[in-house]
Amino acid sequence: xxxxxxxxxxxxVELLAKVFTTVAQDAPSPPSPASWLQLLLVCRHWKExxxxxxxxxxxxxxxxxxxxxxxxxxxxxxxxxxxVHINALPAATIEVAIPHIITQAPRVRxxxxxxxxxxxxxxxxxxxxxxxxxxxxxxxxxxxxxxxREYQYMLxxxxxxxxxxxxxxxxxxxxxxxxxANMRSLRLHDHCCELSKLSFLxxxxxxxxxxxxxxxLDLSRFTPYVNPAGPSEETAQALHSHAPLHFLRxxxxxxxxxxxxxxxxxxxxxxxPADVTLHIRCGLHPLDAERHRTRxxxxxxxxxxxxxxxxxxxxxxxxxxxxxxxxxxVSSPAFAHPExxxxxxxxxxxxxxxxxxxxxxxxxxxAPHLAALHVxxxxxxxxxxxxxxxxxxxxxxxxxxxxxxxxxxxxxxxLAAEGPVVRPHYRAGxxxxxxxxxxxxxxxxxxxxxxxxxxxxxxxxxxxxxxxEGLRSRAGHAPKLRLFGIYRLPGMREGGLRDxxxxxxxxxxxxxxxxxxxPAMQAALGAxxxxxGGGGGER
Length: 539
Fold this sequence. Notes:
Low-confidence stretches: 422-432, 528-539
Number of helices: 18
Radius of gyration: 30 Å
Oligomer: single chain
């Protein structure tokens, strides 16, 4: 029995209904009515209030129970709009359910049809034959957002004048650029443009119309229509003279496709907000491999867009013979997505795969903020590559290099050495315009982690030689390392590994020594990704 003199039962009906609405809005994503339906079971009074409060029922999740659909439509009648979600239902259920939605067409604000097995004729009729004046959000996505063919749903500005969020796969997108003028979120995937013959030029026109207000853009696996006869001279001239794209409010941009589709788009984008989240995964097309050679990655993130990489605090870079990836992470709460940048280039060959020198080129703008760097590489590199890399990021506090044969090069790059320093306040030729000073790369480095490669027991080895000389040369010019980690690769014996490097602690060159096996190394990588640092293992 409820206690009617408790404060919750003294609330006015309107205020109690607002509380119920807040509970419904705080439901986990994807939204589901299950969390707030329990309110109907508390007491008769709550059930009466919830059952008659229209805004509480405006989000309708269609199920195989059509009586539930009719009940939701009836109880939402006092609400000016409804949001309809149809997820992973059999085609027969969708065909029977949509006629009920058609009766509410003037009130439909959002329509999300996802996970369907095959296209719906009734859905096509709803979008093609009925005006949806309030429709702002439309999603038509098969399982995995992958479709085998395209279907025409007759989207148009006349019937859908307020569309603001569009997500399509296997559904034709209109060519009319005016359709995109109010677009805040645009996600286009497989098979969206063959029937409408939306070309790359049409795509640029659509993005230009949406650019002032667009906040999310996802073109993963979206390939514009290509004329089999090739572009006309007029089209080629229009592409060349097309106005550059400046996205003023874009917060998230995703592109996953071949370089033939991604590189031209990146060329035309000339302005992005500094806090944009980038996820670009690109397979190198053979023609682009021939055209760009080793500069394909630079074309993927052109110079005029690299300022968007600036806030990165952690960088994880992987180099292999056929793939390059870089993940830039920002741990600041000011950014909604900690992993702000993912750049991946695959389908590479030894001739087209980028080398270590690409990191200073792409991420030089991040130098003031980058505190953690993790490099995984099996690509050839020389001492100069590591010298240039560590010289680029003076704010590094955590460095991890995965690749045993490059550990001596990293240790040697940490050597402090005298070098010329220009003093511009002296007049040239006065005999004092140049001086020498000790130059230290990564002057605030606190933690260094490297791979170990077996060496003869009686040999000091290249890594131990350069590591000792490098750390001794930094004494007095940079703080000593808080931690040196050595990683044992698979198949190597752990015995004696600590003894091989305990002299670093004994000589006072580092505060602590960390010895880790391969599984712990992978856990440490996860720690670096989730927050600056990483650690664990035997000390």
